Amino acid sequence: MQKMMQSIYINRVKPFSMIRNLATHSIRKTPLLPPLSLYRKILRQHRELPTLQREMGDQYVKNEFKLHKDIDNPLHIVGFLTSWQDYLTMITHGNWKENALSRSTLEKMSDDQVVQLYELMKEAEKLYKNSTDDLDTETTEKGTTTTVEDAMKVGDSTKDSK
Questions:
Q1: Cβ(7)–Cβ(13) below 8 Å
Q2: Computed from CA positions of residues 126, 48, 41, 83, in that sequence, does the dihedral angle turn out positive or negative?
Q3: 3-state secondary structure of 7
Q4: Predicted pLDDT of residue 29
């Protein structure tokens, strides 16, 4: 009886303790990180990205965490943290370049999420086009040509030189 009362008291006082219990008892191999720790680790990991991707990624992460700061539903919080922790794992291991959105994931998204994803894609294309236009300007002055692959290598080499 005392353990049950303790459990009720803890869950009422600390809503994140309930989320932590849900997260560690799930199928996941690693427990979910607390929101602030996850946020900081993502921003730290973005330092490894090329400049344009880092800037866009940082802005997107900051906006998403601000928008979801006041969520009360534990299932939404767990889903949010799980998705961002999966993202952190993906960029940490460097397989973000090859990763594509699966059809099943796209079908699970709401209309608002699909619109947001589309806007993100357009913004990324615009940034990429601007960066390749800058490279084209530089290469035409030197009299050489640049392919898309070369442009990506240049972006990666600027990251390595820092």
A1: no
A2: positive
A3: helix
A4: 67
